Amino acid sequence: MNNLKPIKRSVQLQPLSREHHDGLLFVWKLRQGLANNTPAYAMRDYTSWYWKHHIKAHFFQEEKILLNYIEKSNPLAQKLKSDHDNIREIVLKIDRDADSYDFFWLCNLLESHIRFEEREFFGFLESELTENQLTEIYGQLEKHPVSCVEEWKEEFWTKSNAHRQSL
After folding, report:
1. String of DSSP letters for the chain
2. What distance in Å separates the CA atoms of residue 23 and residue 70, rounded to the nearest whole number?
3. pLDDT bracket for residue 163 (50, 70, 90)
4. What's the first-to-final CA gap in the chain, in angstroms?
5. Are 137 and 66 in contact (CB under 8 A)?
6. Of 2 and 29, which is predicted with more confidence?
7. Exposed e or buried b for every residue in 97-117, given b needs 16+ CB within 10 A?
8. CA–CA gap between residue 45 and residue 111 (Å, rounded)
């Protein structure tokens, strides 16, 4: 049984935490697609769309805004950047030549990365930065929102749609 308590996130970092929730939903959808034997091209198209409309802008926020508030040599900053680079690499590989292993790899890395940020990186920022710095971050996040008005229509993660995809 998982005894992890919900994390009470500062108001200033809550926009990023909400995006992390969306990222975990993305991971769940890919895993459902894998379980339903969804064709790789359908999951590749969704992954490419999600990258362009969500993850890419989210990474920009973290790398260009958050990392300005801590030393580049900080191990947490280095892990964040390294994880982002690895996720980018997997997404590019999926775009070129997707197979189920790549989706498993992406799901595992992205979930692990989100957990790292929520449990370690954001906690570090909240404990080390002043209230004014966190408010500055929030203002910058508001100037560069991650928003997508369109939703993905092909619900390959449902069994009924997964069957239609393979026909």
Report:
1. ---PPPP---GGGHHHHHHHHHHHHHHHHHHHHHHTT--HHHHHHHHHHHIIIIIHHHHHHHHHTGGGGS-TTSHHHHHHHHHHHHHHHHHHHHHHH--HHHHHHHHHHHHHHHHHIIIIIHHHHHHHS-HHHHHHHHHHHHHS----SS-----TTSHHHHHHHH-
2. 24
3. very low
4. 40
5. yes
6. 29
7. ebeeebbebbbebbbebbeeb
8. 20
Residue 12 to residue 9: CA distance in whole angstroms: 8
Q: What is the mean pLDDT of the chain?
A: 89
* Beta carbons of 69 and 137 less than 8 angstroms apart: yes
d(CA 127, CA 106): 30
In this structure, which amino acid lies at residue 16? L
Spatial CB neighbours of 119, under 8 Å, sequence gap ≥ 6: 7
Judge if pTM exceeds 0.85: yes
Q: If you search the block for the tokens 């108001």, which residue do you land on? A: 11
